């Protein structure tokens, strides 16, 4: 099992013919992702050869869906065009839009995530590495060869820490790893993923990675307390960050004690989440929790 993305997913790539889109489409195909088409109105009707796979280019998401049955899209378009790209995908009725693009204005993100939610499209991102169900499908830029299928569900604000925890726990493996992005507004939250992993019968433990800024982790802690029965292990990046500074992701703003790593750690630990002080220690806690459950 998995959440959001499986081997049955049929994936379009908006921006496939650009440099980043080409590179990562090739990587996604190599990971087994069923990429069924690209979208570029100026290159509609062409095909792009990726080793032994010729991928057609469609003029719109709606056309791509009609001709291929696509149910997911990965967005690799420049920031100025991201709002239009996601809005188009949502209007076409696609189920999942994975927005890799960084540097999107917050007001654009608010507009397209709100619109997508109304249209029934789940947005992951923006400014995220995407998601991977190891051994099945990979939508985005997450390295596919650093882990294997397994029993852990991972949700993370940080792309780099997504990769590190995947690698640290490679011998155990993952059901699905979701990089939700660290911008102030994102389409899919920690809570959304917690709920999905709780309902996934093959996810036995959840790893939650957060970082300084905002109150997403505190809200996730309250959700764990009220709704999650599976063990949860956490890690919060930013214990050494100075107060009153913007650091890394646009959402990582700390004011006084609000949004600090310590406050988030305390909120999670108060509801029974074991929180590691390093990624390696977090991985060890996750393995210990799985071993204890056997």
Characterise this structure.
The protein has 294 residues and is of the alpha/beta class. The chain is built from nine helices and 14 strands. The strands form two sheets. It has a seven-stranded mixed beta sheet with strand order 3-4-2-1-5-6-7, with helices on both faces. Strands 9-8-11-10-12-13-14 form a seven-stranded mixed beta sheet, with helices on both faces. Helix 3 runs parallel beside helix 4 and helix 6 (190-199) runs parallel beside helix 7.
Please give the structural blueprint:
Blueprint: E1 10-14, H1 19-30, E2 34-39, E3 47-50, E4 53-58, H2 61-68, E5 72-75, H3 79-92, E6 96-99, H4 106-119, E7 122-124, E8 130-133, E9 137-140, E10 149-156, H5 159-168, E11 174-179, H6 190-199, E12 205-211, H7 216-227, E13 232-237, H8 261-269, E14 274-276, H9 279-293
Parallel strand pairs: 1-2, 1-5, 2-4, 5-6, 6-7, 10-11, 10-12, 12-13, 13-14
Antiparallel strand pairs: 3-4, 8-9, 8-11
Helix pairs in contact: 3-4, 5-9, 6-7, 7-8
GO molecular function: succinate-CoA ligase (ADP-forming) activity
Pathway: Carbohydrate metabolism; tricarboxylic acid cycle; succinate from succinyl-CoA (ligase route): step 1/1
Active site: 249 (tele-phosphohistidine intermediate)
